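Q: Could you fold this chain for me?
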Amino acid sequence: MRQGQGPADDRHRVDPAFADRCERQQRSDGVDNPVRRQPTATPVETVRQVEMMRRECKWSASRIAFELNERGVTISDRTVSRLLLQLGLNRRRLLDPDDDSNRKPRTIVTKRPGHMIHVDVKKVGRIPGGGGWRAHGRDSEQARAAARSKKKTGKRGYVYLHSAVDGHTRMAYTEPLPDEKAATAVAFLHRARAWFAAHGITHVE
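A: Sure. Below is the predicted structure, expressed as structure tokens.
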């Protein structure tokens, strides 16, 4: 043992100065083992509110954090997520083993064609002709041919399906586009309006 090195730093291989500070803290506290302090621990009352909101309202971590902050309790989404994990309430199935939900299905109510148009974008992978590796296997000839085509043409990857659905008639217009940028979406919406007009829906609200 080197001179000035105590048993703590020899045993745990830590910096001698840090070990000395730990030993002085131990002696001042009158304990034999270091005490881990957490001065910023979440108050018990806040933990109780988090548990109550999760069990009774079945809210997500972000919703619980929002509600608490609205009530003057400063807490982050990440802290709420950590507390839910500690409470064993981080998974929805832990609250409702029978898959019950607090979300109620809503009915779309429209008075006329064009009253409500739903616009959505779906990102999907490009599938080569004849199917990809999921259908034929990763080591299949089709998968190798698709990989060669991807390197040669650079056309593999993802495509974005932009869709517009009229809530009253359920008529739908869809285009496969290369991205979901604002300019692409706006241009798609103009074409969708023209398509709906050609099919009798001349006024979109």
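A (continued): The two ends are 83 Å apart (CA to CA).
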